Amino acid sequence: MNLYCPGHKVDSKAYRVMNPLHECYGFRKILDYTWDQTGPSFFWGFVGKNFQLVKEHQQLGIDWYFTDMPYWGRWNGLKEALDPSQDFYWRVVPNATHCNWIGDYPNDRFKRLGVTIHDWQTSGDHILVCPSSSTMERFVDQTGWLERTIQTLRKFTDRPIKVRHKPRGKGTSGPAAALIPFAEEARNAHAVVTTLSMAAVEAACLGIPVFCHEQGPAKPIALTDLSKIESPVRPDRTAWLNTLSYFQFTEQELRQGIDKINDNIVFTKK
Q1: Which pLDDT score, from 0 to 100, does residue 229 have?
Q2: Is 270 a domain residue?
């Protein structure tokens, strides 16, 4: 098993995931993005050459694991400084960038997160469109998604359309604090439309119906067909929420072995 680590940036959040996995399972760290076509492999986002390497794993049918920020319990440097004992979570998903399916999981992990789930809204005004990063859109062959999506929406609705771009750290990559909180921009929204953005998860928790790409994390409780924008679905979210909570882990859990928590993630421990 390979752990692709950004060797040029040793303070990267990637090491909050890769170091515990290395300690627990003895997986080898690769710092220069070289690949000898053996696997499976772990990747932190699409940094460095990860995009190309993930595509090559897919083409050769070799398992790969995508790690990144979680659905809930996101790391925050200030919170950590104020309370070093606080748990933060990290997403780990096999052969996909997001968990976009529903499994048979209990509710213990989701309950522990303390996330408030609002009733589905049955009224709303505007449509909030939330593009994913350009890299994510390219990964699912959706370059130019925003322009096409707005054009399509205008064919099927007269509602106002608002666009919320992903907050970026230092103007380039990585999440940063948004000037306007998502919940504020989403207030009174009829629906949220996105590709793979985790804005879909936040919207669904707020009770706002979602339209997303088939590989998006909200796919099990959303629609993908924009011609149905005036008839969104509002299904039961329980099993979906439980499932997502089983594909994110704390550093301590990563160090102790996440295959003990989720038997759909199977490794050989050292």
Answers
A1: 98
A2: no
137 and 177 part of one domain? yes
Q: With 70 as the cut, is the pLDDT of residue 171 above it?
A: no
The torsion angle over the Cα atoms of residues 252, 75, 104 and 115, rounded to 10 degrees, is 120
**Amino acid in position 167:** P
What span, in angstroms and rounded, lies between the C-alpha atoms of 39 and 144?
32
Cβ neighbours of 261 (radius 10 Å): 16
> Residue 246 in contact with residue 127, Cβ under 8 Å?
no
d(CA 127, CA 117): 20
pLDDT at position 176 is 52
How large a percentage of the chain has pLDDT more than 70?
Answer: 94
Residue 266 lies in a domain: no
| Residue 267 confidence (pLDDT) | 62
CATH of the domain at 143: 3.40.50
Q: How far apart are the first and last CA of the chain?
A: 11
Q: Is 159 exposed, middle or buried (0-12, 13-18, 19+ CB in 10 A)?
A: middle
Q: How many domains, in total, are found in the chain?
A: 2
Query: Six-digit token pair at 43?
Result: 């990747």
pLDDT digits (tens, 9 = 90+) for 136-169: 999 999 999 999 999 999 999 999 999 999 876 5
Query: In terms of residue numbers, what domain contains 72?
Result: 2-113+244-260
Looking at the structure, do residues 89 and 108 belong to the same domain, yes or no? Answer: yes
Q: How many other CB atoms sit within 10 Å of the CB of residue 222?
A: 26
Res 7 pLDDT > 80: no
